[in-house]
Design brief:
- By secondary structure, this protein is α/β, with parallel strands linked by helices.
- It has 2 domains: 263 residues, TIM Barrel (Alpha-Beta Barrel); 105 residues, no CATH class.
- Helix content is 43%, strand content 15%.
- It has 16 helices and 16 strands.
- The strands form 4 sheets. Strands 4-5-6-10-11-12-13-14 form an 8-stranded parallel barrel, surrounded by 7 helices. A 3-stranded antiparallel beta sheet has the order 1-2-3. Strands 7-8-9 form a 3-stranded antiparallel beta sheet.
- The N and C termini lie far apart (46 Å).
């Protein structure tokens, strides 16, 4: 295999399930799957240095293609996203489709919601005038009501992702919202299929033109909301196309996740990797792995650290709560992350976050808070990265179900 090749091999499978442990080879390194891809929206992970990234065992990063498109030329000149980020690891960029639709509709993230989230998004869909206008050419969108329309096409998505130079890039798809009906989902699915063909054709053209550049794997993205026949149609249509792998996303109730993944992954080519977009809750990861997903991503570990939430083997805690004021315990029992190995306690992290005695200067309080957020970010990202590594080991040892049941029983109490 050449250094610039992309490939995927399966080492072990979960008996009577779609899950597997494997290896994704990219020009910038390998990813041992199942694996969590850390989110670095703008090409770097907030409060996580390159050294820390590798110390916690992270193997890859996913970045926001839409935002990075504005500096694509700069990233290209630096040698591609892996070098630009300084993480020097396998990288993924998304197509920008989600950002275009969320900007245009005013919707928030619409993946695997509970019923309260769904009601909220349905209300938004009905109460807001959409600023995105979908056509066969692509999506015309406005950043606000007073700005001019911009056309975002599948071809443009391929062009800026090629410049950014991620190892894995995503095809442009139409993300529907939870408020869209079946008829619209059917239309969007057909349009995504046609856009997929355009992405493949333009990707091939750009690959041939960019002589001497590393090969970038192109993933097709499956939509279809919660409709079984639409999900299966997407899997059959895109599975027959020359994609290197697949991304699974969309809007649906959390309880529907196992069925949706099963419908798709039992049809998709077994020898190609599958990425579950935007999920990192432990139960979602276990469900994703069992039903055939290989890589995962979500902003939650870093975002929640910035709000004081800490992941522990006994469930999540908010370190700001008063009950942790004099707690001498580590953030999570037995944790081997750099924060816990440095013997930081819950009490110490809380003190860094809060000026409980009112003795800190404003500058000192801000500096302490940044230190605390960094320590918590390192811990939370390690927690999820390490969980996927433990799941991988359980598959190799043919012990997945026992490990899952024991782990989730403790975590959810």
């Amino acid at each position: 295999m050449e250094d610039n090749d992309f490939s995927f091999q399966i080492q072990e499978r979960i008996p009577d399930a779609l899950g597997r442990a494997g290896t994704i080879h990219t020009p910038n390194g390998t990813i041992s799957t199942p694996a969590f891809m850390v989110v670095g929206t703008y090409g770097e992970v907030k409060f996580l240095s390159s050294k820390q990234f590798h110390e916690i065992g992270a193997e890859g990063m996913i970045s926001n293609g839409f935002h990075l498109s504005k500096i694509a030329d700069e990233i290209e000149q630096s040698g591609g996203l892996a070098k630009y980020s300084a993480y020097n690891c396998p990288t993924i960029t998304d197509s920008g489709g989600f950002q275009v639709m969320s900007l245009g509709s005013g919707l928030g993230k619409v993946v695997s919601m509970d019923k309260r989230d769904i009601a909220r998004e349905q209300h938004k869909t009905k109460s807001k005038n959409r600023l995105a206008r979908v056509s066969e050419d692509g999506v015309y969108f406005k950043k606000n009501e007073d700005s001019e329309e911009q056309l975002f096409t599948p071809e443009y998505s391929m062009e800026f992702q090629h410049k950014i130079g991620a190892d894995i890039i995503m095809a442009f798809d139409e993300l529907t919202s939870i408020g869209d009906n079946r008829q619209y989902n059917e239309q969007a699915l057909d349009r995504t299929y046609r856009w997929g063909i355009r992405c493949l054709n333009h990707h091939k053209k750009l690959t041939e033109e960019r002589v001497g550049k590393n090969y970038q794997a192109l993933y097709g993205v499956l939509q279809g909301a919660h409709y079984q026949d639409l999900r299966e149609k997407a899997a059959k249509d895109l599975g027959a196309m020359d994609f290197d792998g697949y991304g699974l996303g969309g809007a649906f109730e959390k309880e529907q996740l196992p069925d949706i993944l099963l419908w798709c992954n039992r049809i998709l080519p077994e020898n190609k990797p599958r990425h579950l977009l935007g999920l990192s809750k432990p139960d979602d990861i276990f469900v994703g792995v069992e039903n055939g997903c290989d890589t995962f991503d979500c902003v939650a570990p870093t975002r929640e650290a910035r709000h004081g939430k800490i992941y522990t083997v006994d469930g999540d805690i908010n370190i700001r709560n008063a009950k942790f004021k004099n707690d001498p315990n580590p953030l999570s029992e037995g944790c081997q992350c750099p924060t816990c190995k440095s013997n930081y306690t819950r009490e110490e992290i809380r003190k860094l976050l809060r000026d409980t005695n009112g003795t800190k200067t404003e500058k000192q309080a801000l500096n302490d808070k940044k230190i605390a957020i960094e320590l918590m970010t390192v811990h939370n990202v390690y927690f999820i990265v390490n969980l996927t590594k433990e799941i991988r080991q359980s598959i190799i040892e043919n012990n997945f179900h026992n490990f899952r049941d024991k782990w989730l029983k403790r975590y959810y109490g």
